């Protein structure tokens, strides 16, 4: 290094002035005795002793009482600096008032005019240790947040690209931690207030925070996540933190409640229809009976005319007899309808599933004959006793059969067949209705309860309600070879 010849030379007093001005603490020890010869103001301030008070002190007077700061160790450390020229140590000094001061100390051998000395430079590292401990603690917190917590946390940039995710978040969204995470919309559908939205719309609302939902597709059912998205101002607005919680259970419960409400509404409509059917059956019964009586009298009068040789009376007799037969048939239908819907009270009883099917076959065949559909019954060889509400369970059978008949009636004649099967298996009485129609595009019990263009869904909704209330199972599934199969199972009654 070149020295400017015009610069004034520094003298001893200059170096002393610089040491006195330094915030680094300096102690000068005699190399032989290790006594303190001098201390700068910074050292005196930290140790709370004056230079005159420091000189007679020994190591144990101004060091921590812990074993690793024993006087013997301190003298050995200074001696090693004398022998090797320099030595460093982490040393705990003790101030006049007893405060322990952790320091990082460096001992350097120096040759003074009066002999060899050891200059010790040290500084208070207590605050540095606190900062270091805080950093270690923070790192531990971050590690726990990333790998040992159930919190679903994501860090994103303004483009919606994932930059960081906790282990739990990676598992939930199905991402691989060993690969670039990519955009968030790759893993699920963002929603606001229940409607699908784009990342740009969510970002616009994060001013600085907004609620957000994320629906993640899964093998069985979607995983529903809900939480907040916050724009982090400290990062210049380039980073966003998304904290989510799994609310799938709540969402599924809401869907179940909504479906139950739909079923209750359908059931209420059904009861109204039942009341109307009762009223119609009651009002039609008497006029039909009276018409039958009038036609019966006319038939007898026409018969007497025919016996007298009136040829025209024969035609009248034939017409009247035909009308009477049709009225009798209508009366039988109305009577059966009144018997069927006239017992809507919920009466639990043990009934043979085969008997319930037999009671329903009259109505089923009426509907099937009109549509040109063949009805095949495959009954269990013995009784299938189930505990149920007999009339309402019969309604389920009718709903299944009527739906199947309507389905195959629109098909080719060779496919116009439905099959009713009853059996006992696995502690349950099982009934299925098979058709050879167009099949099921979706599960009607999981969605709208109907797949018909003009269907109300009342029948299937009511069927679902009746069977599940009786601790049974109800389902619909595609049939092997084409068509569909509707079925229910009720627990077998103890014999």
CATH class of the largest domain: Alpha Beta
Q: Do you know the CATH topology of the largest domain?
A: Heat Shock Protein 90
Task: State the CATH architecture of the largest domain.
Answer: 2-Layer Sandwich
Global structural class? alpha+beta
Tell me roughly what share of residues is in helical segments. Answer: 40-55%
Cross-sheet strand order for the largest sheet: 7-6-12-11-10-8-9
* Total strands: 19
**Molecular shape:** rod-shaped
Low-confidence stretches: none
CATH-assigned homologous superfamily of the largest domain: Histidine kinase-like ATPase, C-terminal domain
The proportion of residues in beta strands is 25-35%
Global mean pLDDT: 81
Distance between the termini: 112 Å
Q: What's the total helix number?
A: 12
Describe this structure in words.
By secondary structure, this protein is an alpha+beta fold. It folds into four domains: 12-124, PAS domain (Beta-Lactamase); 131-246, Beta-Lactamase (2-Layer Sandwich); 252-341, Helix Hairpins (Orthogonal Bundle), CATH 1.10.287.130; 348-491, Histidine kinase-like ATPase, C-terminal domain (Heat Shock Protein 90). It contains twelve helices and 19 strands. The protein has helices at 12-21, 41-47, 51-54, 71-84, 126-147, 167-173, 199-205, 248-307, 311-341, 353-371, 390-409, 458-469, and strands spanning 25-30, 36-39, 86-94, 100-112, 115-124, 152-157, 162-165, 189-192, 195-196, 209-216, 223-232, 239-246, 348-352, 374-378, 385-389, 417-425, 428-435, 473-478, 484-491. A seven-stranded antiparallel β-sheet has the order 7-6-12-11-10-8-9, sandwiched between helices. A five-stranded antiparallel β-sheet has the order 2-1-5-4-3. A hairpin with a 4-residue loop joins strand 6 and strand 7 (162-165). Helix 8 (248-307) crosses helix 12, helix 10 (353-371) runs parallel beside helix 11 (390-409) and helix 11 packs antiparallel against helix 12 (458-469). The radius of gyration is 48 Å and the shape is rod-shaped. The mean pLDDT is 81. This is histidine kinase.
